[in-house]
Amino acid sequence: MNSPAADPLIQVAGLTKHFDVSSGIFGGYEFSLNGLQFPFRYDPEVVRAVDDVSFEIERGETLGLVGESGCGKSTLARVLLQLLEPTAGDIYFEEENLAELSSEALRQRRKDIQIIFQDPQSSLDPRMKAGAIIEEPMQAHGMLDAAGREERAKELLESVGLESQYYDRYPHEFSGGQRQRINLARALSVDPEFVVLDEPTSALDVSVQAQILNTLDSLQAEFGLTYLFISHDLSVIRHISDRVAVMYLGELVEVAPVEALFEDPKHPYTRALLSSIPVPDPRNRGERSVLEGDVPSPINPPSGCRFRTRCPALIAPAEHDLSETEWESVRSLLRAVSRRSFDPDDVDAGTLRARFFDGPLSDAHCEEVIDQAINHAVTGRWDQSSSLLEREFSQKSICAQSNPSLERIPTDRRVACHRHHVDGGDGTRGTGGTM
Ligand SMILES: Nc1ncnc2c1ncn2[C@@H]1O[C@H](COP(=O)(O)OP(=O)(O)OP(=O)(O)O)[C@@H](O)[C@H]1O
């Protein structure tokens, strides 16, 4: 961590979770018999779900965690909750390293960390009444006697916006929003310090969502709770968070106070995410999204910056002598070829070139490469075209050569982007234009 938080409740250092998904019973192993190599080699396939993630959560704050589906948010939450063992890294709770606790101390600590899942239905046992559901964790931790637990369960029902007489009702007698409130009461029953909310409102109607978010706000104040709020819904994240961590392909790319992040996103991925929020303007019907292409596989993520294959701000290779406008045109061609976004039957080399470039490039080598790449593309040789562009341009960019770490930039945030790790930190130095 670059700089410790004022009063961190949770500190996460270099947290990593990889899943071995090698197929077959011998997946992940290489055989050798009497020094001879087995004729088949099974390369381990590893999903890099969470990779070297470090952050802290201050006591009493809500840290929002946002990112596209599959970027590792839920895995991170499960590792934090000790539901999954980390591959590497440490989690400190009130400065205690959870990995170093005895099993009894860890059992006690588990009480302090609770989770609320997305689907309020499946997490409630249909055969149990609300009261018993809320009391179950207290019983497991030996808290209070039966009468004390009942009293506490009834108080909690009221704290979460229900009525104490609901104590004897079964889950099917409640609406989706009410069931999520019962989950909240159950999580709060053991008096936790930290609650992970994993898409807690995604399965609910919009009007119910807002009510639950308001309840979460008041519960935080009443019980002094610290939240990690996971969502892919940026408007929910903006409503609830004090700070926001943006995750892409297993890594954190930006961590910033909520308003700073929404008003002035620094990482190109954050910018792309924010610009894909639908604009509620009837004249502007386009749901503008600059998030082009698919998320690469976490089994084989791109070298260097993992966002570089979709990044509209890829930095020009230092060895090329291109103007900003020229590099922008090269970048557009790179993205168009990798997305195969034109039909080779409908376009000849001259027309395609004119779509991206005003005239010949000032760098003779680049000019030659672009010519070849365009010729490959218009004859349907997509792979040759994209590997040539990848080799001559993308791979030579610093973005492909080293993975930018999450560094504090001269504002109030941390960003993992080479563009911001330069003097001034405004991300505009060097060839490549502004983002
Ligand atoms: N048990 C597992 N075994 C193998 N791969 C897994 C396992 N759990 C998650 N993954 C993979 O890890 C990556 C991260 O998944 P995760 O569910 O953490 O992402 P997420 O951001 O929470 O996505 P979503 O918003 O869709 O829930 C994905 O590629 C997923 O397929």
Automatic annotation (TrEMBL):
Entry-linked InterPro entries: AAA+_ATPase, ABC_transp_ATP-bind, ABC_transporter-like_ATP-bd, ABC_transporter-like_CS, Oligopep_ABC_C, P-loop_NTPase
SUPFAM superfamilies: P-loop containing nucleoside triphosphate hydrolases (SSF52540)
SMART domains the record matches: AAA
Record-linked CDD domains: ABC_NikE_OppD_transporters
Molecular function GO terms recorded: ATP binding; ATP hydrolysis activity
UniProt entry keywords in alphabetical sequence: ATP-binding, Nucleotide-binding, Transport
One example of a Gene Ontology biological process annotation: peptide transport
Domain ABC transporter, first and last residues per copy: 31-274
Family classification: Belongs to the ABC transporter superfamily.
Name of this chain's protein: ABC transporter domain-containing protein
